[in-house]
Task: structure prediction
Amino acid sequence: MSTETLDTPIVAATPVVAEPPPPRPEPLSDRMILEFERPVVELERKLDELRALSSETVDFSNEIRRLEQKARKLQKEVFADLTPQQKVQLSRHPGRPYMLDYARLLCEDWFELHGDRSFRDDPAIVGAMARFDEWEVLVLGHQKGRNTKENLHRNFGMARPEGYRKATRLMRMAARFGRPILCFIDTPGAYPGLGAEERGQAEAIAKALQVMASLDVPIISVVIGEGGSGGALALGVADRVLMLEYSIYSVISPEGCASILWRAPSKVPEAAAQLKLTAQDLVGLKVCDEIIPEAPGGAHRDLAVTAAKVRMAIKRHLRELSALPPAELVERRYQKFRAIGAFIDTAT
Amino acid sequence: MAWWSRTGGLQTESKKSVPKGIWAKCERCSTTIYDGDLDTNLRVCKSCGHHFRMPTDGRIEMIIDPGVWQEHDTTLESADPLGFRVDGKRYSDSIKSAAKKVGPGDAYRAGTSAIGGIPVEVGFFVFEFMGGSMGSVVGEKIARQFERALASRRPAIVFSASGGARMQEGVLSLMQMAKTSAARSRLREAHVPYISVLLHPTTGGVAASIAMLGDIIIAEPDALIGFAGPRVIEQTIRQQLPPGFQRSEFLLEHGMVDMVVPRGDLRATLERSLRWFAGAPGESGHAAAGSNGVGTDPAPGANGTGHA
Ligand SMILES: [Zn+2]
Result:
């Protein structure tokens, strides 16, 4: 995947107004099914077959009901006892809804905005003016691709400096006009490439953190998939940090951690467990303010149900935050992040 | 007294081929140098100008006005919030052994001090302590340093030398990037100067937060500075990196740092910059003795500065 050179060509192919994409087809292809999902999916396929057969003369309704119950029970059992590594897999599930999938359901009057005004547009981060419920808002989020072509365009949701600079530019603009900011976090991390380093990846992320800390409008960040390190945090200095039930947020990927600390790729599940990166862990660490439940079996099993829960959560928090005076917002956001961490003072 | 007295700094530089603590071999030009000579030359190779790593004690002594150093928060220690262990080795034990070797205070030392008579809140990443990695203690110390700078309106200076966030504290270490950047943001709004000095190496979460947020950014020559480590980039793009990539001079060329300053000129450069911020011209580059150049007077008794 060497799409980046010292002189990245300027791509002028981005549309002026990008509409969120049409609904995705729901059924998962075989390669999109995780191992621990398979028993349930196979039961469901059997159910589909039975339903198709029973339409004519034979009545399978008892058998169907029995299998439906069995599938529900099985799914509940599997999902009640997921390992951290399984949650990592769910957060990266190939069928998982991405930022634009939620935006399509949650927002109206969507106008995408482009570019960092200095180098180029970065499709790995999407920014848009939109209407959410009663609010005119700025929506920002990492966007992954659904297939190879899209991923080439979106760079797997791994932003370059211009992506963060676009985000920073738009956030400043939103604050100037008193518009709340909604961020959707879903990235493996900032892109580690030649051009990205050359153009100041570190500075672009740092600036985003600094700017977010200073804006006097409500900021809500929702981790919808992968919260990968600094590239995720660059959209995460928010008044409220919400996480979907099977999303993760970490300083490093389990793969990176296993290779650095264990020097063994086989230790990835162990690293995933040690890093305490699940939404449930992050509530305990006071990094996540609220977990948004996903549809049974994960967000990819029912986008509409999951999106409705995301809508409710954002609405509730936005209403609370909108009631606060702007200076109070900034102060509370500062104190929120100021308090995160764990240390001992041996003098006390 | 040698300035690395506490850290035993010269041992960290010695190579297997030369006897410990007497001779050092230059990594760049392979010259064998008597360690005492290296020390008198601020640990810079006289043959090729290569900057050896400088132990933090020596670094502090080299930068600040002699004796003007009130260190803060030395009693903060890393907790082990995740109960992190690698193959049975606990993070809390790594902390203990690092503290035993390097000294207390984790990977950052901050103090109220003065440079050229100008009071400052200055802090130093301690690379000797777990690669200068930023966990909760480092984040807390930097936030407190910036808060002191804000309250007293003294300029803040951070010397970065760090591999990035401390993985063993998981997402809490990531959040220190937000914490320190937020504290830096307050200094910015209040127009209190912040100077960032980048030493070898400054990468990862430290680069992507406070290190790149200085009003001015100064780098030592040939320091590795960047977000992603060179190995990660090479694995991603599957090609070798050009020589000099992510080094100080490369960043200067690409507009990411204001200047690359050899170690021997660092103190004078800081002094000059501080004077510019303070709007108090010195006497041909020298500090007026006892001058209290910064805008507002520090609250009496609030700090231990003053010439010893
Ligand atoms: Zn040399």
About this structure: Residues 170-189 of chain B form the longest helix (20 residues). Chain B has two domains: 21-52, 55-278.
